[in-house]
Amino acid sequence: MSEQKLEVFNVLNFLDNGYDIEDILKEGQFGTFESAQDCIDYLVEEKYLTGDISVNTSVEITAESISKKYVVSELKDILRENGLKISGKKHELVERVLPLLKEAHDARNLDVSTKTDKKYDYELTDKAHEFLKENEWIDLYMFALVAFRFEDYETYVSNSSQGNVETALKFCDEIISRSLMKNQFLIFIDALSAKAHVYAYDGDYESFLDYDLQRFILGLNPMFLDAESYADYDPINEANIINLRNVLDKLNFGSLKKRFDNIWNKSHITHITVSKKLCYKILQRAIDGADIEELNFDIKEKYLDKKFGL
Known about the structure:
Layout: H1 2-16, H2 21-27, H3 36-45, E1 49-56, H4 63-69, H5 72-81, H6 90-107, E2 117-124, H7 126-134, H8 137-144, H9 150-158, H10 164-181, H11 185-201, H12 205-220, H13 227-231, H14 238-250, H15 256-267, H16 276-287, H17 292-308
Antiparallel strand pairs: 1-2
């Protein structure tokens, strides 16, 4: 049920923010629902949505329109279902399908032509708005905490008396603490990144920048990594670089070097793998658009393989 709750929230939240339902149906991943349409049907049945679907059957059925709408395999499927010959070139298949679709169009038998245009006219109900308000914490989860299990965070939220942002920050801090105790470095840096995004969600971009810088620095200076985890490890996370670049481009936070030095000192690196000077140089190269894959290959080969590799 937790997974379904997440799916329902996402669809309703997109609709509430002005997205067209057609776009949501195309892009969505609907997990517990067999299809996007099943998800919409559920929302209507549960009275989260009210409205209807209108089907446009006014388009003229011609050989040209059929040829544009259907690929050969679809034309053959229609012919096969109607017991007709399926061999021949596309224009021959179109000519055979044409009377079938015309007949279906005239009879409003929409099962034959699966390409009819649908127009969704749904609105969120009061129940939907109440659901979104009660579960607004899910929006923050989707923005910052998707690296962690939804069910775990749902339980954590239900036991918290603090606000959404405070709860999320505390959740990240507890994961950071546990991961350090258990030497789980990959979980640790995921939690650092998540905490940065919680601050971004709250509009605190200075703290976001600080934690994302720390994530970069420690990515090049892992505190502990077993050989199995290291095999697929990327010292530089491309999303991390994109985030840093976007914030630095849009906001003026003064000297990046000064902030970098400050975060390096706060990180308390006891076993340096990539020196501070070199780490900053690599950061500048990455932000300036260097190929991240090539940088990762060079960093692992020159600095990390001997320490963490097989």
